[in-house]
Amino acid sequence: MGFSNIALTIAGSDSGGGAGIQADLKTFAFHCVHGTSAITCITAQNTLGVNQVKKINSDLIKAQIEAIVTDINIKAVKTGMLFDEEIIIAVSQQIKQWKLSQLVVDPVMVSRTGVKLIDEGAIASLKTNLIPQALIVTPNRYEAQILSNLSIFSLEDMKKAAQIIYNLGAKFVLIKGGGMKDNLQGVDVWFDGKNCEVLTTETIKTKHTHGTGCTLSAAITANLALGKDPFIAVKQAKDYVTNALKYSLEIGKGTGPVGHFFPLLKP
Ligand SMILES: Nc1ncnc2c1ncn2[C@@H]1O[C@H](COP(=O)(O)OP(=O)(O)OP(=O)(O)O)[C@@H](O)[C@H]1O
Ligand SMILES: Cc1ncc(CO)c(N)n1
């Protein structure tokens, strides 16, 4: 039987299984979306942090994307950890060459434990080569500060940054309010070029939050692959992350991952 709900993630591997490619493929599967992947970097990582990062040769990254798109019809794509300028340029060029649409760019910059997941020199390239091709760009507050050159302390600051990031060329901007322990946890700002919409959920009190950002952008991508409109895709993805946080997994000695099993565990 023909099956067309197919998504692609271009991201790094998290050996601990909480973020990156592993989070993306689980999220796709729990949306009934077939996941394909092009791995950009390998991280030696667990719930305590990132111990090592090794990038994949850009020719091999290109070859992974080419192998997928010349055979399989991809409905939506996300990018995660891209690490350096060479990879960003290679991936941006592939997205253009293969006319990959419905692109969600998660501009991953640092891990939750503060390890750099991108070269500082690569940020300019992210702004000029990749973000202009995005349907939706999903920075967290820290990434939004870097992309907009604004300090973000409040909801008003998030709204101002969203407008600046929109001007980089993405069709829609979603600034996420997780990460820091304050009253903006779970509060995200959506900007469509005209209006700002504040998306709010209850704050989930859990220590185990590893992979929230990857899971959110993957759920948005899955919803786009299912044919949903961008705003609906984002709202439903946010519900998915809220549930994944409610059912996060107490695994390892540090910050455990969000859980994807809630559709199976719920009474
Ligand atoms: N404690 C929380 N309660 C409810 N929602 C949360 C909480 N923490 C994060 N979120 C939501 O999770 C989503 C991801 O946001 P977050 O800012 O954590 O991403 P991130 O920093 O990119 O994640 P990562 O740590 O994976 O890099 C957003 O929709 C945010 O509002
Ligand atoms: C591979 C990878 N991608 C993204 C993140 C951000 O959470 C991470 N920690 N590891």
The fourth-level CATH homologous superfamily is Ribokinase
Secondary-structure element series: EHEEHEHEHEHHEEEHHH
Mean pLDDT figure: 95
| CATH third-level topology | UDP-N-acetylmuramoyl-L-alanine:D-glutamate ligase
Q: Which small-molecule species are bound to the chains here?
A: adenosine-5'-triphosphate, 4-amino-5-hydroxymethyl-2-methylpyrimidine
- Label the structural class: alpha/beta
Count the DSSP helices.
9
**Rg, Cα atoms, Å:** 17 Å
Helix content bin: 25-40%
Number of domains: 1
CATH class: Alpha Beta
Largest beta sheet: what is the strand line-up? 3-2-1-4-5-6-7-8-9
Question: Could you name the ranges where pLDDT drops below 50 across 5 or more consecutive residues?
Answer: none
The main sheet comes to:
9 strands, mixed
Outline type: globular
Through-space gap between termini? 32 Å
Q: Proportion of β residues?
A: 15-25%
By DSSP, the count of extended strands is 9
Q: What would CATH call the architecture?
A: 3-Layer(aba) Sandwich
